[in-house]
Amino acid sequence: MHDALTDSHTFRLLNVINNYNQEALTIEVDFSLPTQRVIRSLNQFTECRGKPIQIRCDNDPEYISNTLKEWAIEQGSILSYIKPDNPQQNAYVERYN
């Protein structure tokens, strides 16, 4: 997700939500969330909650990078992408925000 402040500075959000019970498992907010930051957050998450079987995400650059794909393979997780410009496929996260 991304949004803008009143002074036009944009910020990004990484939300990890359990698809079954819609529980927010972790949230990262910053002006920039590069792939390495996403991976660091996911590593912290997996230490507490275990490795996810599947991660559904959009097609932003930090999620389609080879670095994240390699991380997912190492974890034994599947990256599942929604269709571009189709947020309805990620309705839980969209509604959460």
TrEMBL record:
Start and end residues of each Integrase catalytic domain: 1-97
InterPro entries given in the database record: Integrase_cat-core, RNaseH-like_sf, RNaseH_sf
Domain of life assignment: Bacteria
Pfam families the UniProt entry points to: rve (PF00665)
Gene Ontology MF term list: nucleic acid binding
GO terms (BP aspect): DNA integration
Protein name: Mobile element protein
Gene source species: Psychrobacter aquaticus CMS 56
